[in-house]
Amino acid sequence: MKSEQLKIPQATAKRLPLYYRFIESLHAAGKQRVSSTELSQAVKVDSATIRRDFSYFGALGKKGYGYNVQYLLSFFRETLDQDERTNVILVGVGNLGTALLQYNFSKNNNTVITHAFDVDEKKIGTKVGEVPVYNWDKLEEIGLQNVSIAVLTVPASQAQKSADRLVKAGIEGILNFTPVRLSVPAHIRVHHIDLAVELQALVYFLKHYPL
Ligand SMILES: NC(=O)c1ccc[n+]([C@@H]2O[C@H](COP(=O)([O-])OP(=O)(O)OC[C@H]3O[C@@H](n4cnc5c(N)ncnc54)[C@H](O)[C@@H]3O)[C@@H](O)[C@H]2O)c1
Fold this sequence. Notes:
Blueprint: H1 3-6, H2 10-28, E1 33-34, H3 36-43, H4 47-55, E2 61-62, E3 66-68, H5 69-79, E4 86-91, H6 95-102, E5 111-118, E6 127-128, E7 131-135, H7 139-142, E8 147-152, H8 156-168, E9 173-176, E10 189-192, H9 195-208
Parallel strand pairs: 4-5, 4-8, 5-7, 8-9, 9-10
Antiparallel strand pairs: 1-3, 2-3, 6-7
Helix pairs in contact: 2-5, 3-4
Function: Modulates transcription in response to changes in cellular NADH/NAD(+) redox state.
GO cellular component, one term: cytoplasm
Subunit structure: Homodimer.
């Protein structure tokens, strides 16, 4: 994502893929313009936030007209590097890893899982969907050309040492599905997806902030 270069707030950067997905569907449906209210209802972000987010990229919308869908689409595609393919690896082809490999990410964007790794002899050498499973012990031998992101779906007990090895191999970003809070050098970005925490948060919000 080029948002670092644009110096936009991280919260805005995180919403960009959400906007992009919706704008892409509008474009596919032949829609030519969209208002911030329509956008707001679709992506469930209030329209003032949308206008502020968009203002970081310059005046993209016109009062009473809304936003030009084609313009937004090319703008987001470029900002999110959608014209460039991003190669990703996945480590740990168990229940969760298999489900992620079977989900076709590239249908919606240009992110492709090219390699999967595991230690289980029964899985090494097989394919899940289109993705070949390699021997994790051979990571360095196989090498990671043009790969900067890893999805981590190993058991918790293996998480930290797997992350250490990924960092040594040159990975810059880890999408961590394990419950472990990873320690990594400052230049490595970790995004943590903890379903238990998300569920707990939802329970809390339902109780304390009823809609
Ligand atoms: N299954 C879920 O719904 C779920 C949901 C949220 C989070 N998680 C977390 O995701 C992780 C994986 O969960 P799961 O249910 O898929 O587990 P799993 O036991 O089914 O799969 C783990 C896989 O990792 C492999 N593995 C073990 N050590 C490895 C290593 N050092 N290097 C590479 N591969 C290795 C195993 O052979 C296995 O294939 C866990 O940390 C779990 O807490 C799972």
